[in-house]
Hints:
Blueprint: E1 5-9, H1 15-31, H2 44-52, E2 56-61, E3 65-73, E4 84-85, E5 94-101, H3 110-124, E6 129-134, H4 139-147, E7 151-158, E8 161-169
Parallel strand pairs: 5-6
Antiparallel strand pairs: 1-2, 2-3, 3-5, 4-7, 6-8, 7-8
Amino acid sequence: MLSQLSLRKAENADADRIWEILQQAINKRKEEGSDQWQDGYPNLEVVKEDIANNYGYVILENEQQIIGYVAIIDAVEPAYLELEGKWLTDGKYAVVHRLAVAQDVVIKGLGTWTMQEAEKVALSKDIKSIKVDTNFDNIGMLRVFEKLGYSYCGEVFFRGGARKAFEKVLE
Length: 171
């Protein structure tokens, strides 16, 4: 199943499907009892900004159906400057935000595959580090980070809440 997947830059025409997928992820987090993404973020405007900044990517099945979304950002994340802890590196890095997969299509390993693709995108831009964060209760993403060798570096704060921060140095 994973062999039928591809990643491409998001386009303006993709925004509605991306927003639909994000809403599914927002609802899933709520059903799981999490407060992650329950404060009006992310929203359609954030998606449109990602696309305008060339940060947005869609996950395609069979090169046509959009089944996921991720923002791969090659700019400084201001919240990461205030890490309570220590990053592995001080140089250039990519940030992965807003990884969401469609709930109406179930593909085992999709989160892991997406993070591996994000690593390839970073390396293609000569970026040797990825920094990420997630809610303390986002077990799925925490497992992905562990499986792919991300190191726990401390806590960052977004919109008043603490989140676990991780980094992976890419080879």
